[in-house]
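Consider the following input, taken from an annotated entry for Methyltransferase domain-containing protein (Emiliania huxleyi).
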Amino acid sequence: MSAAMSGGFASMREAYEQSEGAASYYAEHGAKYRNPHEPALTAALAAALGRLETAGQLDCSTRRLRMLDLACGSGEATLAVRQWVASRAGRQQPACTAADPFTHQAFEERVGEPCRRWSFEDVSAGELDEEEPFDLAIAVTGA
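Applying the prediction step yields:
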């Protein structure tokens, strides 16, 4: 992992330990966060989405997918899904709802769309209860 990607630390574990926890780390570095594993994440998502499409469990050929990107970081998963959809002729780009209480600024700057501040705790407390169902939900964490 690049030290620049983790705020000058050799690993995210070290970053969290030196910052006295994830919340403290992201309070200081969240606006500039980039997932150091983005290329692997993009490849893994493309493979998984391809399998889901082949199995008939994911279809963006007739309508726009509704996607939830929880713990969205700086948008790595959202951008990977968009890239995968764009590689298929005649597909509509997904409607993405992104959420991250720590890296929302990095997401908004990179992706150019709003990001909710929901945490996993907010979701488990019912924050999504009023939302329409999602076709695809992604949560990438790496503590």
